[in-house]
Write a structure and sequence with these properties.
CATH class of the largest domain: Mainly Alpha
Largest sheet: 4 strands, mixed
Number of strands: 7
CATH topology of the largest domain: Glycosyltransferase
Structural class: alpha+beta
Number of domains: 2
CATH architecture of the largest domain: Alpha/alpha barrel
Helix content: 40-55%
């Protein structure tokens, strides 16, 4: 059986010679696909995975009766941050084509009656741990976004949310002093990620008491940490990095110089060279599986955490190139996976993509520290960057068929990462006629058929250094590292270029 593999050489032109050094702009057209993902699910009640404690037969009810504001998007927390996504995008792009539909969806959900029922549910018997801390932290992020938005509808929704907001803050203020140890996992219960969202909310709300509690908790849990076990990440169902999540909250609570020193002791793995090999991005083995799809979200959250760490370091810190390189790689890989093809990922990945592309945690943290919150178009302002010469990046998209790869198609693309592939420009395409493509094709066939399948039941990695000159003096680049990674259980194949 033939196995057609499409390889994309994601090739930014040598920017040392480029005149345009402004960063790509995340515009309304790029945001629309994320808005559509949320609009498709915020009122989609089923399928639904409820986290519901039954005290009697009277507690048996459908999601729309239990939690009427947040009954869609498969689960409560995804519904909450799906609504946050809509607020964030309408606030950022008020005149976008999707804005009217987003406002209507928000108006339908965030009514005073619905949110009063939500508050009653949260305070109900046996629900002390309901959505704590993940869902409650996202709820506070929604409250913060609405508080910062100078808009009549936003002010109405803020008032409607007040009972639920107060119940959530009360619940977290009761819980944090009793939490004796941080939860260091890559899923919902992670302490570090929740603390970061709580702290950003507390600054927006002007709740100094809550901000101090969160900040003190972060220092109590993480200040003495050293030599994080980054090599043990990720776990197979992670969508958050325990190590990066910890660093991302600590950069919020420590002064710059103190954070830079803390990070050196906590994460000594960060090199002083501009490469992403120290923390490669991940690929979900099955995006249709609700747990295995978590790895697609891990790329997105790692990207924003890495960018957050970068934002807190001095401009001359020698670790910046390595952090930037791996942040860029995770950024590209993460956005490429936000397709909406499978509801298992489509109901939540859009929120992660928007949090990353609008730099929510970074812009908010900086504005909070300066005593002013930027709004609206501030997120779209292009920034100047120092010209750099980046190597090309290659990824492989396998077909659904199985078997030995026998044909390879290469495409050179000038990529705009901020639009998730929408504005990518194809520069050159060839299908198995170029000698380099033929070499890769035959090498893949030999590796899989003659070595990997008979002898190994684990991933096999090969590295090959090849130099290729193309377009004469205009384009002269090096294909530095090609990794052949096989999942041998079904002989599917991934080719990654770092």
């Amino acid at each position: 059986m033939r196995f057609l593999t499409t390889a994309l050489i994601l090739f930014p032109l040598f920017t040392l010679a480029a005149e345009n050094t402004s960063a790509p702009i995340f515009d309304a057209a790029a945001a629309e696909r994320f808005a559509k993902l949320a609009l498709a699910c915020v009122h989609k009640e089923y399928p639904n995975k409820i986290s519901h404690v039954l005290n009697s037969d009277a507690d048996v009810a459908p999601p729309r009766k239990l939690t009427p504001a947040f009954c869609g998007c498969y689960d409560w927390h995804s519904s909450v941050h799906g609504h946050w996504l809509l607020v964030r995008l309408v606030r950022t792009f008020p005149d976008a084509p999707f804005a009217a539909a987003a406002r209507d969806a928000l108006k339908k959900s965030l009514t005073a009656e619905n949110l009063k029922e939500e508050a009653n549910y949260l305070r109900g018997k046996g629900r002390a741990s309901f959505e704590r801390p993940y869902g409650l932290s996202w709820l506070l992020q929604l409250c913060a976004e609405l508080r910062e938005w100078d808009d009549p509808q936003a002010r109405e929704m803020t008032a409607n949310l007040r009972p639920l907001e107060e119940a959530a803050v009360e619940r977290l203020k009761t819980w944090l002093p009793k939490l004796s140890h941080p939860v260091r996992i890559g899923e919902h219960d992670q302490t570090a990620f929740g603390l970061g969202l709580m702290l950003d909310y507390a600054h927006t709300a002007g709740n100094e008491e809550f901000a101090k509690l969160v900040s003190d908790s972060a220092k109590k849990f993480f200040l003495a940490d050293k030599n994080c076990p980054l090599a043990y990440e990720p776990s197979g169902e992670d969508f958050l990095s325990p190590s990066l999540g910890e660093a991302d909250v600590m950069r919020r609570v420590l002064p710059q110089s103190e954070f830079a020193k803390w990070l050196k002791e906590f994460m000594p793995q960060i090199p002083a060279t501009a490469n992403a090999d120290w923390l490669p991005f991940v690929i979900s083995p099955d995006p249709s599986d609700p747990k295995l799809a978590h790895l697609d979200g891990l790329n997105l959250s790692r990207a924003w955490m890495l960018e957050g760490i970068l934002s807190a370091l001095p401009s001359d810190d020698p670790r910046r190139p390595a952090l930037q390189a791996t942040a860029d790689a995770h950024h590209r890989a993460g956005l490429a996976a936000v397709t909406g093809e499978h509801y298992e990922g489509g109901h939540w990945l859009g929120s992660f993509a928007v949090y990353l592309t609008t730099k929510r945690g970074i812009e908010h943290s900086k504005a909070s520290s300066e005593g002013a919150i930027s709004g609206g178009g501030a997120f779209r302002s292009p920034t100047k960057r120092t010209p750099v010469c980046r190597p090309p990046h290659l990824a492989v998209i396998p077909s659904a068929s199985r078997g030995i790869p026998t044909e390879v198609t290469f495409e050179i693309v000038q990529q705009d990462p901020s639009t998730g592939g929408r504005d990518d420009k194809s520069l050159w395409r060839v299908a198995n006629t170029f000698s380099f493509g033929l070499l890769v094709d035959r090498l893949c066939y030999f590796v899989v058929k003659s070595i990997a399948l008979p002898c190994f039941r684990q991933p096999l990695v090969f590295r090959l250094d090849i130099s290729v000159a193309f377009f004469g003096e205009i384009l002269n680049f090096f294909l530095q590292t090609i990794s052949f990674c096989t999942r041998l259980g079904d002989a599917s194949f991934h080719l990654l270029f770092c």
